[in-house]
Amino acid sequence: MPPYKTGLLKRKIPDESKEVEVNNSRSDEDEVLIRGELDAENDSTDSEHDDDNAASDTERDEILFHDSADSLLSDDEANESLAESSDLTDSEEDDESGDEESSHEEDGESNSDEDKAEEEKEAKPKTKAESEDSGAESGTGPTLSGSSDGSKKTKEKAINKKEFKQKPIKKKEFKPKPTKTKAVQKTTDSIDALANKIKETNVTIQPVQEKDEYESGDTSDEEERVNTAGAVPSWWYDEYEHVGYDVEGRRIARPPRRDRIDEFLRKCEDPEFWRTVRDPGTGQDIILSKQDLELIARIREGRVPNPEHDEYQPWVEWFSREVLATPLRAFPEHKRSFLPSREEQRHVSRIVHALKMGWMKTRKQIAEERKKSKEQKFYDLWGSSAAAGEGEGVRGLQRHIPAPRRPPPGHAESYNPPPEYLLDAKEMKEWNKLAQTPWKRKYTFLPTRHGSLREVAAYERFTRERFLRCLDLYLAPRAIKMRLTINPEDLVPKLPSPRDLQPFPTTEVLKFTGHTDLVRSIDFDPSGQYVVSGSDDGTVKVWETSSGRCLRTLALGCAVTRVAWTPAAGLSLLAAAAGRRLLLLNPGAGVGAHRVAARTDDLLAEPPPARDVVMDERTAACVQWETPDAAQWARGVRLSVTHFKPLLHLSWHARGDYLAATVEEAGARGVLVHQLSRRRSQLPFRRAPGRLQCAAFHPHRPLLFVATQRAVRVYDLVKQELVRKLLAGAQWISALALHPAGDNLLVASYDRKCMWFDLELSSKPYQTLRLHGGAVRAVAFHSRYPLFASAGDDQYIVVSHGMVYNDLLQNPLLVPLKQLRAPEPRGELCVLDVRFHPAQPWLLAAAADHTLRLYA
Amino acid sequence: MAAEPAEVQLQVRFVTKQEQYAVSDSPYAIQSNVQSSDLNTLVNALLKETKPSLQKSVEFDFLVCGELLCTTIAEHLQEKGVSTEDTLEIEYLERFPAPTPQECLMHDDWVSAVHTHGNWILSGSYDNSIHIWNTKGQHKLAIPGHTSPVKGVSWVSFNGDQAVFASGSHDQSAMLWVWNVTRNSVDCVVTCRGHDKGVECLAVAVDGTRFATGSWDNSICIWSTSLTDEDNVPAKKRSKPEQGNSREPMSTLKGHREAVSAVQWIDYNTILSSSWDHLLKLWDCELGGIKQEIAGNKAFFDADWSPLNNSMITASADRHVRLYDPRSTESIVKTTFTSHTGWVQSVRWSKTRDTLFLSAGYDGQVKLWETRSPRTPLYDLTGHEDKVLCCDWSNPSLLISGSCDNTVRIFKAKHAMESM
Known about the structure:
The structure holds two protein chains of two kinds.
Chain A: H1 3-12, H2 15-41, H3 45-88, H4 96-122, H5 124-146, H6 153-157, H7 168-174, H8 176-189, H9 191-203, H10 205-217, H11 220-223, E1 242-245, E2 251-253, H12 260-269, E3 276-278, E4 285-287, H13 290-301, H14 342-357, H15 363-374, H16 385-390, H17 395-398, H18 425-433, H19 462-475, H20 488-491, E5 508-513, E6 519-524, E7 530-535, E8 539-544, E9 549-555, E10 560-565, E11 574-578, E12 581-585, H21 594-605, H22 617-622, E13 623-626, H23 630-634, E14 637-643, E15 647-652, E16 658-663, E17 671-675, E18 680-682, E19 692-697, E20 703-708, E21 711-716, E22 721-727, E23 733-738, E24 744-749, E25 754-758, E26 767-769, E27 776-781, E28 787-792, E29 796-803, E30 813-821, E31 831-836, E32 843-847, E33 851-855
Antiparallel strand pairs in A: 1-2, 3-4, 5-33, 6-7, 7-8, 8-9, 10-11, 11-12, 12-14, 13-14, 15-16, 16-17, 17-18, 19-20, 20-21, 21-22, 23-24, 24-25, 25-26, 27-28, 28-29, 29-30, 31-32, 32-33
Helix pairs in contact in A: 2-3, 2-9, 2-10, 3-4, 3-8, 3-13, 4-5, 4-8, 4-13, 5-8
Chain B: E1 9-16, E2 28-31, H1 36-50, E3 60-64, E4 67-68, H2 73-80, E5 87-94, E6 100-106, E7 111-117, E8 120-125, E9 129-134, E10 139-144, E11 150-159, E12 162-169, E13 173-180, E14 185-193, E15 199-204, E16 210-215, E17 219-224, H3 235-239, E18 246-247, E19 251-254, E20 260-267, E21 270-275, E22 279-284, E23 289-295, E24 300-306, E25 311-316, E26 320-324, E27 333-338, E28 344-349, E29 356-361, E30 366-370, E31 379-381, E32 388-392, E33 398-403, E34 407-412
Parallel strand pairs in B: 1-5, 14-18
Antiparallel strand pairs in B: 1-2, 3-4, 3-5, 6-34, 7-8, 8-9, 9-10, 11-12, 12-13, 13-14, 15-16, 16-17, 17-19, 20-21, 21-22, 22-23, 24-25, 25-26, 26-27, 28-29, 29-30, 30-31, 32-33, 33-34
């Protein structure tokens, strides 16, 4: 029952009871005071009565509380046990339930005290005698309880009990009973006493007020009789004569045990026996009062123990819809108080989000973390130290390298191998022979036959072998072999398909036969109708390209090393280097245009004026211009220039007036430039740039390219200076060809390489083409198609695509296209010269087998 | 297609354009693995039933899906991608009889040009001479006159005893000759000078009044064939005594960028020319302009045009013979004939059959082709031991070829006349 209700209850008590209450309160105060006196004097019954009365009143409130508390604790139990106890009424309440019972009974008794008090007010005379008795008894009660020896018949009356475990509450209840009876006595005494009391109370209002709370705490006189043994099992005192100690430390004597006969006698004798219970704490018998019984009865019936409690008291509408003049609450409940708070919702959602994102942790998580952090950490003894250093975890787990697998056991290792695995006599002999070198044996063990697996003896080397295996695994480092998986296609550079780069020569179509020795040099006439070839058989032959027909043979007497058709369209002239002589030949009327041939003859017939033919001495010592005699003229020779050394190479200037001749082993005089129109020669170099191989004019700029053994030097003929030096990176340069646009240069070398120089790029080769298996002797560019070819001592002529872009940003594109099968080599030599047809994508090769081959 | 062609039955119907060999139109079921020889016996058997008048059995060729049947029908259909389910229409025609080798005309040097008219064969050689033969192989005359290899010869006209022919040579001239048949004497009437370089080819117009020459100087010249030059030679030129009987071209067609390798007259006004610059050109002679241009991707060595089917065949710097249709504006090759193993140097249409032509190549082979059989020639005319430089089929019964082995070989085509 909430405190305010009690308040309410109190308020509802009728006025007379109020009076009594007032009295009570006074008497309470008095009681304390008197008690004090009493203690001092140990007498004065009157005051004691008052005291008791008052106490009973004060007690009422307390009981109300206790009651509720108790009933809450064990209502049903109480009911049951009470029922029992009422049945039994006698003895055998050894167990605790009995104790509780009794306590409840006492509660009930104490409750019923109030009723009693009220009743007594109405009918005092009637109960007088009774109360006197009880009063007498109870009056002596405290004193009795105070000393064990002073125990009287009340104690004798008490039911025999083994254990006395009792709580102070019980004492409280236990005590009031006698006081009440006294109170009854007191009321019967006199009114003047009451008046006195009122006076006293009036007088001592102040101290009472002070003492009020002190009194509530001070239950000293009650506690005198309390067993202070504490909450210890009562059987601890089984061996002793006492059952505990009172407040002053005196022993509380064990009440005498009664046997059944005693019980029976008491039952017969004592009319109060049925309502006598024994207090287990103190071992005293307590006679339940009428109020107690009523209380018990009410509890049993399941009603509110307090009979005064009105369950149906009128409801007070504290909060009503009626507008009060002084409302309890001045404002109505706001609507939002019925709606969930949005702010809270937002807050909660924020928290939830934070939890989700991990910004915030629940208490549980925090606790777990804390717990984890507190956990002891152990050093991973078996983890690899290197992996720990890298922080990638245990290496063995990350990239486990399995131990190399051993081959599974074979038939020979069986306990019962097939007979063919058992060693026969011969094999056994061999086995024994290899006793010194057991590793040479066929098996590491001797295949043996056993009747059953059970008969197989223990393998004596097991431990050792296992140990060795472990050593192997541990000591032999294992590593994952990283295999490179490279597609062969990926290594090949991305080049356009040769199919897209057509046309280019693919097959041999014509064979020009007629020479009787290897063909050293070939050249096309500017229109491509004719071919000229110079051979070691001392002849120069002119052929028809389309049919391979030899149209003209010019015998020169000695081996022809080089032939070159003049690039000038208006001339029918070809230059041939035969030994030390450079011959300018007119192939004749049958070849080419009559008119052109005639004009050429006219031009060359008459020598230029002598003043033009001025050569310094150095040059004059080297060369000698000769006009042929009639016989030679008839053979086609129009001019002859005799050099001091055999000629190596010839090349025409693009306009056809100049001719660069390279002479063998001549040092500084190795290159001579002849001018046809003036019939004079020049020695462009004063110093030998090196061992000269060949020289060529730039197609449209006044540049002379001179190939020495290791490098190609570019000279400016106007400024007469060295412009560039192209380092080929080859051991011995064999030939050189200029791209018709003039910016690219192809150099062949005897050490199987071709070097492509981009003159705008650098003086190092743009690309070095290793396409040949032998020395490369000739290279050629096509004048119209982006083609170039190289040939040499191996049996292939390689035709390549060499695209040169006008765009300066784009480098030349070189794609080898086709290996053309060259004719059979003669000795070391195979192909000595290659030339492209000036207009068609045809390639002519001068072969060592005395033929010329046309590929298309 | 059928996995096992041998199993398949075919429904075929035989049709022909040759009325005398017509058989009934009803379809026949035949095995798909039959070849043309089997079909031949079948058709002959059918013919015997329908036309008992025909005594001899006839050799037929069979056209399946527009192409000559050379393998089994199943393979042929598989190649063509034609279903074997439908009724197949097989056209048959009398087979061109195999040409028989006749004479071998020995020369002193390579034969570079050959032309026939009637019984007379004209051949030009690399030894600068022109030869006249009859079809029996008799050497009538050797005519020196050119100073360089003769590259083109052609008969111009026959007037009783007097025969006129033209020749072109690498000595930059073309010559008009008059040959008196009975007296067997020849006379160079006119020397046509106008080319700067050698004459490569020569063709006489259909009406015989003009001829055209193509040359290495990239131009084509058209000359008159009149033996007297009063009407078309300016008086000033005629007055020059040393010029004598020389003649200047009626017109010069310039436009090629490389040597002109062949000229042909299409009609009296139009010339077809082929050149090394990968172009075929149709010229209008009177205007001197180009009517049409067809580009190939190789240098052309020869071209011929047939009035019968109005299409041209070309030989170029590879082993293929290509059939062009000049009416198509795009230079689409209609058919490519591949069987030669070397460069094809010369091609000639049949004058009487629109589907036959002759080709001569550097592989020493002369091949007779049927336009509907692009992979297999009808006949290989073997015999030459070296490159074949020229061929001629002007006389429909004579297939003539000249070669680097110094010979002219004559093959005779039987029934060639009567088949039309």
